[in-house]
């Protein structure tokens, strides 16, 4: 839908005359309306502040809040996020649905609650952008999405393939093999990229970090588009895809990874694909000695993902831009 620039997003905290005081004020993602009213909503942003499935360092439960804080910087420009040629908020009504809760002592409740809330959002006709949380949060997101769109192609950015064979353990290194076995994702039409840890492919197409550097961004984009085609796809972005120099604040960092520039170039290359849902996960701000660059990377990638979701909605609605 076409929406006029929302004055609620001005970030005006009193006497700033509409100037966006990025260091203060309301803390929804990009100053979006914080609401669970889904009337007319195109994209809902959802936080999942959960880190009970980590194998190493916890702390990703603070990811959604940190990403929202840095999103004031990515969203301060009325013409949109550079270098996109439009402002996603002018074309689509986006809201911050805020965080999905669970009792801290009952981690399994996260899965149940995410599945039901995501189902509610999808049934209202909106797309979902999720902010993790550790990567296990992608499992219920995929469940709810595949229930409505059928088996999904996964487009997976990560240092790890997260396909360990550990059954139904609550473990953030396992859920994509589990989702494949559940028939929720189709490995043969999925692509994982950025991997630089030992892994077994289990039928997934993998562009390991070394090959990604070898072939470059354009060839990697072509490979992803060729494998996934027009199928309904779910885009999942573990912040540890990035080199720890660009994203030190994460639970299981691995050196030798891509830059934020390379990550964004890859995302730009996905424009127009049939992306049904997306996430950015594993931002754990406490391990970031700068305090903020990991969350800024997460916020920027999340903002890019909003554009990808918006363009996919345009395409499904038969609108060409
Ligand atoms: Mn990872």
What does this 3D model show about the protein?
The protein has 321 residues and is α/β, with parallel strands linked by helices. It has a single domain (7-316), classed as 3-Layer(aba) Sandwich (Arginase, Chain A), CATH 3.40.800. It is 32% helix and 13% strand. It contains eight helices and eight strands; from the N terminus they run βααβαβαβαββαβαβα. It has helices at residues 63-74, 88-91, 108-123, 138-149, 175-181, 209-228, 260-268, 293-316, and strands at 43-48, 94-99, 127-132, 153-157, 191-193, 205-207, 233-238, 275-281. It has an eight-stranded parallel β-sheet, sandwiched between helices. The protein starts with 42 loop residues before the first strand and ends in a 5-residue tail after the last helix. Mean pLDDT is 94; it is low at 1-5. The structure holds manganese (II) ion (MN). Manganese (II) ion (MN) binds at residues 158-160, 238, 240, 252, 282. Manganese (II) ion (MN) is lined by residues 158-160, 238, 240, 252, 282.
Short recap of the structure:
This protein has 321 residues and is α/β, with parallel strands linked by helices. Helix content is 32%, strand content 13%.
Please render the helix and strand layout as text.
Layout: E1 43-48, H1 63-74, H2 88-91, E2 94-99, H3 108-123, E3 127-132, H4 138-149, E4 153-157, H5 175-181, E5 191-193, E6 205-207, H6 209-228, E7 233-238, H7 260-268, E8 275-281, H8 293-316
Parallel strand pairs: 1-2, 1-3, 3-8, 4-5, 4-7, 5-6, 7-8
Helix pairs in contact: 1-8, 3-4, 4-5, 6-7, 7-8
The structure holds manganese (II) ion (MN).
Manganese (II) ion binds at residues 158-160, 238, 240, 252, 282.
């Amino acid at each position: 839908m076409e929406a006029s620039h929302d004055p609620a997003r001005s970030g005006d905290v009193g006497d700033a005359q509409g100037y966006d005081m990025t260091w203060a004020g309301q803390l929804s993602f990009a100053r979006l309306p914080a609401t669970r009213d889904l009337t007319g909503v195109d994209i809902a942003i959802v936080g999942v502040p959960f880190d009970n499935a980590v194998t190493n360092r916890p702390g990703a439960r603070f990811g959604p809040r940190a990403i929202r804080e840095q999103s004031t910087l990515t969203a301060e420009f009325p013409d949109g996020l550079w270098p996109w040629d439009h402002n996603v908020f002018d074309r689509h009504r986006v809201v911050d649905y805020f965080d999905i809760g669970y009792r801290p002592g009952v981690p399994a409740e996260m899965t149940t609650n995410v599945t039901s809330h995501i189902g509610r959002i999808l049934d209202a006709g909106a797309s979902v952008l999720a902010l993790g949380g550790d990567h296990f949060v992608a499992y219920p997101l995929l469940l709810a999405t595949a229930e409505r769109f059928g088996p999904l192609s996964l487009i997976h950015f990560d240092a790890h393939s997260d396909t360990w064979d550990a059954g139904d353990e609550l473990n953030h290194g396992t859920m994509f093999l589990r989702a494949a076995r559940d028939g929720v994702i189709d490995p043969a039409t999925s692509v994982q990229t950025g991997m630089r840890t030992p892994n077994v492919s289990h039928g997934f197409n993998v562009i390991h970090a070394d090959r990604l550097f070898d072939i470059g961004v354009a060839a990697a984009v072509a490979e992803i588009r060729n494998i996934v085609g027009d199928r309904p796809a779910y885009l999942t972005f573990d912040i540890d895809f990035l080199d720890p120099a660009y994203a030190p604040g994460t639970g299981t960092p691995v050196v030798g990874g891509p830059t934020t520039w390379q990550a964004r170039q890859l995302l730009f290359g996905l424009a127009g694909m049939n992306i049904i849902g997306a996430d950015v996960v594993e931002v754990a701000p406490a391990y970031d000695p700068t305090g903020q660059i990991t969350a800024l990377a997460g916020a920027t990638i999340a903002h890019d993902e909003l554009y990808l979701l918006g363009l996919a909605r345009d395409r499904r609605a038969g609108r060409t831009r």
